[in-house]
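Why predict the complex rather than its parts? Because the way molecules touch one another can change local conformation, and only a joint prediction can capture that. The input here totals 267 residues.
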Amino acid sequence: MAKLPASHLDRTFAALVDPTRRAILARLAMEESVSIGELARPFTIKLPAVMKHLDVLGAAGLISRSKKARTVAVRLAPEPMAEAMDWLRRYERFWSASLDRLAAYAAAQEAKAGGEHSP
Amino acid sequence: MTSLTLVRRIAARPSIVFDALTTPDGIACWWGPDDGPVLLAETDIRVGGRFRVRFRMLDGTEHESSGQYIEIDKPTRLVISWRWTQGGEPEEAGEESRVEIDLRPIDAGTELTFTHSRLRTEASRASHEHGWNGALDKLARHFTSDRT
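Output of the joint prediction:
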């Protein structure tokens, strides 16, 4: 079974806790490549604060930055996000399918238990 | 979604649903996400008693989880601790989460509310403090379209 170190997921989730960082990611999800200045524009916080958020996202592997001439282009690196989503969804799949089966089984047991208790 | 809540309406009275949830015979009939067999089911229905369930999926992988009964209020409520003990979610290894099941009688039978919480400290914190599911979904879509 493919192991994903816990610290890896923790970093992803920790990065996602902050609303500014989520806003940055949401924007990058829609635009392929955005300069740092352009990313910072919608926010009231100052550029250095935006840079700090980008550092957190970068450390979590959620974005990549590349320097071209005098601008830094930021892109989404979606793999860690997909891993986190996948981890969360495994639980949902497991329980959702199991509970469907439980419902079918209990209904059959109820039918077996007899018509005298018909609702 | 790290605190997972699911609701099912079941055409059976709560006591029958409760037995299906807590007896080895019942568990053997539904536990697991596909038609693969339950290989082992042990329950010790008392507060502090343990359960252990092992199942094989159709892809051949085997998974086992175990935990303790924390609250038993037959036939309306069940709270258990939960951990994968083998082949389960590797990131969750050694960490205990919590499953709460409430059974409410309704005309058609039972409304079952299932909550799996405390899945991860960080993740739970994130989901409780902020609703980031929307952002996640957007990103998941982005990832999906990236691949196609």
